[in-house]
Amino acid sequence: MPLDKRRVLLSWSSGKDSAWCLHVLNQQADIEVVGLLTTFNESADRVAMHAVRKLLVEQQAESVGLPLFPVWLPWPCPNEAYEDAMESALRRIGKQLDVTTVAFGDLFLEDIRAYREDQMAAWGTSALFPIWKSATIQLALRMIAAGLKAYLTCVDPRQCPAEFAGRLYDKELLNDLPDSVDPCGEHGEFHSYAFDGPMFDTAIDVTVGETIERDGFVFSDVIPI
Length: 225
Known about the structure:
This protein has helices at about 15-25, 55-65, 80-95, 110-120, 135-145, 170-175, and strands at about 5-10, 30-40, 45, 70-75, 100-105, 125-130, 150-155, 190-195, 205-215, 215-225. The chain is α/β, with parallel strands linked by helices. It has one domain (about 5-225): HUPs (Rossmann fold). The strands form two sheets. Strands 1, 2, 3, 4, 5 and 6 form a six-stranded mixed β-sheet that branches. It has a four-stranded antiparallel β-sheet with strand order 8-7-10-9, with no helix packed on it.
């Protein structure tokens, strides 16, 4: 008899961890990823926090062969507005795709996991954490060894040197990171844009453009070639 697969919507930030999360899910015989859910800053037309252009996220979705479901957030965005937008999106998409599970690429922050589980339960959905408790240095090296490529798009200079913005996420970067910085940036030290790896059918042709400081963060603009 054919396996009854669990239909999963993946929370997609455009970064390395969500990309790797997709790779892990794709290897599970009882899981079918049916779409990507991404929050966008509606005034900037970019991924919230990562500041990645919507066009580049659309190219990611095309390369992995999944539909992209944008969630538009105001700026500034109070938590109540975020929760309202997410609930509306998940209830609509859940009915459209017959999905009751959302997967997240979180690694070890217990308070974030508890928050997601509480919110998903309140909205009639369950939360899945495929790479939870992965040791971050081993995970980082495994991602790089598997061919995942990403640029750092956002750096919090209070936690990580500003000059890391725009750099390729590779072994050299890991070696250069201060000991206080998590190798996967799980504390928000940095965010990234994944453009190649085993989860993509084809690499996305991009380069790094201007780097600016705004709202206390340093952003490097990844642009299509």
